[in-house]
Design brief:
The complex is a heterodimer of chains A (about 270) and B (about 300).
Chain A (H helix, E strand, L loop, with lengths): L2 H25 L33 H37 L1 H15 L3 H11 L4 H28 L2 H8 L4 H38 L10 H10 L9 H25 L1 H7 L1
Helix pairs in contact in A: 1-2, 1-9, 2-3, 2-5, 2-7, 2-9, 3-5, 4-5, 5-7, 6-7, 7-8, 7-9, 8-9, 9-10
Chain B lengths: L1 H26 L4 H6 L5 H11 L5 H13 L13 H36 L4 H15 L2 H15 L14 H35 L2 H8 L4 H38 L5 H10 L3 H29 L1 H5 L1
Helix pairs in contact in B: 1-12, 5-6, 5-8, 5-10, 6-8, 7-8, 7-10, 8-10, 9-10, 10-11, 10-12, 11-12
The chains are: A mainly alpha (about 270), B mainly alpha (about 300).
């Protein structure tokens, strides 16, 4: 089997597994993830029927990790959604209009690109209050320039094609041409970008929750679990292992899926990359 | 001409960035004075603080006041400590900047040999091992790498301090305290840069001048070392500059893991203490620094590769 297929298959399998875990956790987890038990604190792997042990409050670690996948995917979907909903029209507008409009949009993108997601989140949280909402908005806005830039780059070449010129002679408006003719032709590039951004959004959410400005209790989050684990790192280092592995595993899945999709949807890139 | 235009874009970007930072803190719902004093504050104390901070004046005037202060190096006074914000930021940068530079040095030391080795063993076992490791490195959150490094090398072996910073009185102790935080950042950044180095070297090895060098009798590795690496370094230089900006953002999180008194931990403390002016000043300094790095990368790129200017 060729490498590009392996990336695609392994990446898609991991992503499907995470999605299924998140869906299953809505209806079933081995234990109640919020159930505190003073007699079952810091149990080891497999003790008393807890497959991954328990945390400092006696809560089942596996159940928390399962429910944490909901937060990771939820933030990924909404943050990347914000980036896509704002970034694609902006990139399309820049490619369609050119001139000062393009210059203005691209320069503004450069400025926003200078704001890392963590910094944007700090600004938002300082102005409102910590929570998953400001975190998602901050991550989404931080990724708008990436989506806008990729959309513009891909759309510029499509706008030069004959069938777009033909649509223009029909008197179609540029916005119509972009959404009807250009967007479907650059969808593969955007799908790959969205997959990679999803991985970055999960990492960003974990970082923000770790800092205490993302998901707030009682909402379970892998980043928040790591924040709690840090306090008990000397007593029970394994508490820092499982949530970290969950993040790395999920991000690896989306990255591999992105690489696999890139190779499958645009074989020219694959030839250049190898 | 290019230099003037690029500097113009830079100044425009800095002004827009300052406007964005100011707007986020000012336009979003909620009264900053109320946020600073908390929900228990009386209306009189809120009104007094609004007057003290100049929040009762029109927004554009507040902005231009703040911006003119920024130009003079005056970012205001912290509402919590009463100290000069610019001085506080300068003190914090004495930890954040060495940490970022140390992390970037480690990144280069990890990524260049790994990327070149991977490209030189293209489609062989060594290449597969390096690309797999870099893929894993990309998926690891830097703060998790930090926690694991603390567990193994600080708590387990006691080779490095688990947290804290002793100050620069003893350079050796200071560098020891920054070693694990820098390594945590370098593991992730190194994975990213390794991929770029590998790709750049592979691209370069397909160039005509490498074929000519090989035709003259040079071995593949001799052609790579004598002609390939210098050319491959040009695109990697751009990425290194951009990644330095990402690394600076990464320090915010890493400083929390290792309890370092840097700019990131200052921002997080400022949020807890509702010190909005300090958040505003610190955030602006980080963004201005990132924009400056982008400017330097663009200018350096044209300097080391004159073909860019000709194109």
């Amino acid at each position: 089997m060729r490498w590009k297929r392996i990336n695609l298959v392994v990446g898609a399998s991991i992503v499907v597994l995470v999605i299924v875990t998140a869906l299953v956790s809505f209806v079933w987890t081995p234990y109640d993830p919020q159930q505190i038990s003073s007699t079952e604190r810091l149990l080891g792997v497999g003790e008393n029927g807890h497959l991954l042990g328990t945390d400092q409050f006696g809560r089942d670690v596996l159940s928390q990790i399962m429910v944490g996948s909901q937060t990771a995917l939820f933030v990924g979907i909404l943050a990347v959604g914000i980036a896509v909903v704002i970034g694609i029209p902006l990139g399309g507008l820049a490619a369609a209009r050119r001139g000062w409009t393009e210059e203005g949009i691209m320069r503004l993108s450069d400025v926003i690109y200078a704001f890392p997601p963590v910094l944007l989140a700090i600004l938002l949280v300082a102005a409102v209050s910590p929570g998953i909402g400001p975190a998602m908005v901050a991550i989404g806005i931080a990724y708008v320039p990436i989506v806008a830039r990729v959309t513009r780059g891909a759309a510029l070449s499509v706008f030069e094609l004959d069938y777009v010129a033909a649509a223009r002679t029909y008197g179609r408006r540029k916005a119509y041409i972009f959404f009807r003719h250009v967007l479907p032709n650059i969808a593969s590039v955007l799908i790959v970008q969205v997959t990679v951004l999803f991985a970055l959004a999960i990492l960003a959410e974990a970082a923000l929750s770790f800092l205490g400005i993302g998901a707030q209790p009682p909402r379970p989050s892998w980043g928040r679990s790591l924040r709690d684990a840090q306090t008990f790192i000397q007593l029970s280092p394994r508490l820092a292992v499982w949530p970290g592995l969950a993040i790395a595993f999920t991000v690896l899945g989306f990255n591999l899926l992105g690489d696999g999709l890139r190779d499958a949807l645009d074989p020219r890139l694959e030839v250049r990359r190898t | 001409m290019y230099l003037v235009r690029r500097l113009g874009v830079f100044l425009f970007s800095v002004v827009v960035a300052s406007g964005l930072v100011f707007s986020v803190m000012s336009i979003l719902p909620g009264d900053p004075a109320q946020v600073m004093l908390g929900t228990q504050a009386t209306p009189e104390s809120v009104a007094a603080l609004r007057t003290e901070l100049g929040l009762d004046r029109p927004m554009p005037i507040q902005y231009f006041d703040w911006l003119s202060g920024v130009v003079r190096g005056d970012l205001g006074t912290s509402i919590f400590s009463g100290q000069d914000i610019a001085a506080q930021i300068a003190a914090r940068l004495r930890v954040t900047m060495p940490l970022a530079v140390m992390a970037m040095t480690m990144t280069i030391l990890l990524a260049f040999p790994a990327g070149v080795y991977s490209a030189s063993r293209h489609r062989r076992l060594g290449d597969t091992v390096v690309t797999t490791l870099s893929q894993i490195g990309l998926a690891i959150p830097a703060f998790w790498a930090g926690l694991i490094l603390v567990t193994v090398f600080a708590v387990g072996r006691g080779w490095f301090p688990a947290n804290g910073f002793p100050g620069w009185d003893s350079v050796g102790q200071a560098l020891r305290a920054l070693f694990l935080p820098a390594l945590s950042l370098a593991i992730v950044q190194g994975a990213i840069i390794t991929r770029y180095v590998r790709s750049a070297v592979l691209d370069t090895m397909r160039e005509d001048y490498i074929r000519t060098a090989r035709a003259k009798g040079l071995s593949r590795s001799a052609a790579l070392w004598r002609h390939g690496l210098r050319n491959a370094a040009i695109p990697v230089l751009t990425i290194l500059g951009l990644q330095f900006a990402a690394l600076l953002a990464g320090t915010v999180v890493i400083e929390t893991v290792f309890v370092l008194p840097g700019l990131g931990s200052m921002l997080l403390q400022a949020i807890t203490r509702r010190d909005l002016l300090l958040v505003q000043g610190g955030a602006f300094v980080i963004v201005a620094f990132i924009l400056t790095i982008n400017l330097l990368v663009d200018l350096t790129y044209r300097f080391v590769d004159p073909r860019v200017a000709r194109r």
